[in-house]
Write a structure and sequence with these properties.
277 residues, mainly alpha, 0% strand, flat
Amino acid sequence: MSVGDQPIVGAPVRSEAAPFGQAIARRVFTRANGLRLLSLTIVFGAWQLWGSANEYFASYPTAIVAAASQNFFPVVLPAFGITLTAMLVGMLIAIPIGMAIGFAMGRIRLLDVALTPYMYAIYATPRIALIPILVLWLGIDFNLRITIVALGAVFPIIINTYVGTKDADRELLDVGRVFMASSWQALRSIIVPSAAPFVFAGVRIGVGRAVSGVIVAEMTSTLTGVGRTLISYAKYLQIAELFVGVMTLGLFSLLLYAGLARLQRRMTPWADAERAR
């Protein structure tokens, strides 16, 4: 080995893992996360003290953890799987239908005038008022859950897609006309990118309505799922087990919203750039 190939004794060795670890540490150990941790500590500490003295009203965190260790996998998780399957199928139906109707109403004046009254009337109708009718039409099986999810999610998606289509930059549309862009090219290159943040907002609202709708449907009309499990726990005053189901739904909703927000940032980076101006 030549002199030039020999390592220099005492020279610092640059670690590739160090910058990555420092970046992770900067993102984790932030002031905001510290405040969140402090808030959780205070809330759960107060809950533990108060709940242990009022066990039949609110339970307390250690009892909920003990109940989760016994009931989560054999009871709550299978019920949650049934509910989640209905939610996914209903959302897969609602998203393309909502986007298609929203874009069509935003671009075609006739459809806008004809469909707007029906859309807002059905959107304003409480979904729980529709459950007896849907039970007569669909029964109390899986189809009822899917329909409730789709009805709850589709209208926020329609409305937000419609607003996003109307909000498209008129100057860009005029430029497209000058360069002889077809309707399809204008839709793909100008209107869809402009409406994408609105569509994601509609999906997030729709997911919230879908979760609440499917739980209400399971509580009132079905024999399985998280909603029916919650009713069963409440019926026999199993408060800790009841909180296991409620907190599972809350954690799932939180993760779902965070995932949708992350997906939106990845798919619509121009929206963040416009907000930063």
